[in-house]
Amino acid sequence: MANAINWFEIPVKNFDRAKKFYESVLDITMMLPFEGMKYAMFPADMKNGEIGGGLVEEQGYEPSQNGAVVYLNGGDDLSVPLSRVEAAGGKIVIPKKSIGANGFMAMFIDTEGNKMAFHSMK
Does 1 score more than 80 pLDDT? Predict the structure, then answer.
């Protein structure tokens, strides 16, 4: 097994707001793969081992600040996407901090109430 994580889904209550938040913060365009379903996929080259995931608004999916935390790729320096969190409607709860030889992390609450994080090596 190459990765412990294969796929992740972030539950949302307002699909359009959440999609706009993540596209703005990460400076990406999310794919809409399923017609008639409120689902958007983060960019990932899964054929080359990258981990993929998406936003989903559907019955049974509830945003949460409790439980597992998804660490999104903060790029070369997580300060860049982190600097966009509050302007996009989120809240920073742990500013960028060193985690020693493992790089840096920061935690935030997205527009839907999910506790999320960024990781980068610098």
Answer: no
